[in-house]
Amino acid sequence: MEIRYKSTRGDGTLISASQAVLQGLAPDGGLYVPDAIPSLDTPLQDLAEMEYKEIAYLVMSKYLSDYTEAELKECIEKAYDSKFDTDQIAPVVLKGQAYYMELFHGATIAFKDMALSILPHLLTKAAQKNKITDEIVILTATSGDTGKAALAGFADVEGTKIAVFYPKGGVSRIQELQMVTQKGDNTFVAGVRGNFDDAQTGVKKMFNDTRLKQELKERGFRFSSANSINIGRLVPQIAYYVWAYSRLVKDGTVKAGDKINFVVPTGNFGNILAGYYAKLMGLPVHKLICASNDNKVLYDFFRTGIYNRNREFILTTSPSMDILISSNLERLIFKVCAFSPEQNRQYMKELAEKGVYTLTLNQIAQLEDFVPGYADEKEDAQEIRQMYEETGYVMDPHTAVASAVYRKYLKETEDTTPAVIVSTASPYKFARSVMTAIDPAYDQMDDFALIEELRKTSKIPVPNAIREILDAQIRHDHVCGIDEMEAAVKGFLKV
User: Which fold has domain 92-110+232-459?
Assistant: First the structure.
């Protein structure tokens, strides 16, 4: 069965998976979605005997159906190699009342590595398959983690250039250093005077600017995206939900067919959407618990059916979740609109013009797979400290948001379904927030002294990703306004 892709705002035109990967965002501004959800037809018991690469192939081959077996397996082999510091790729560990799926063992110590390690290979294969000779320009906005993972994935990849925009002052110091010290002649990084939503809106504006695209095409360039708006980013994420389930079957926590819950720290909605796609494929998932920080636009949406971005933007210690426009939610909205591009377009128009849209009661009823929760800054810090004191486990602030939300969920529901908390970043990426949550006295130390204290506290070796930036040269110091982003890209491309 060949899965093809259509835009959430389009006329139903279908394109191949490789074409969707190449384009990233549809020409009409919509997001590509599969024309059908394939079934997870391998017996669940058999999954328990598979390694991560095997499960990755099993899942991705169903969605990326115009890639040959040899092409896809080559991409997987190149992606999930020694850059991950554990044999398991994504260990699933029991701590306290839940399992934690650690997605931060890749080159940039964040969950984005799980998909951004493979996207450059999928993209270059797609270019070959579709006889594209233009140089591919990856345009990406980041709230912290996507930027470095994308830069690391695309650095010096032939036939590509990558430009990353991040909110200046809106990411952790470690996140910023990871980006601005990135090597590679084809890389460009700029801080944006604004928040993540501003940077993301600026990138989307360039994608949708036909004049700009034509101008660049004449110079031999074409845009693509490394954000989770690209289906080539989203599909690899589905695999690790299947992997997590397989580990619980393997260790006897659940019998094949029993349901589990996932708790996902959520910002742009791509990560939890991948879990939803896994459920639609037939993975036995009871609830997807959508965990928000103080920027709880998704919490309010799932409770009321009203998406309203007209609110204060709050900078938190979990910056990758500091988002008020969750781009990937559009894929879910398209589904609850019975795949009506007209209805979806209307909602997205209302969001762009008024900052708010409201679902119908029938559409709200289709959101029952999701349970919203949120943890504020105080609860987040308390969860880091409490988990450390109870179990010795040290987690980053994003994971702690999910952990705190799950603690509240248990108290409110007494739901005993086994739960997997999706752990999205290494505590080393947010050393100051983590250590001051454990003891406020640590706030007097500088960032790099805190790294050593975190090593002693967590008993986890300092990752290569941290060691390599301790004395790295700053290579990218560009800062621009939102209205200067296009000029920055043109300057990078020398057009």
Answer: Rossmann fold (3.40.50)
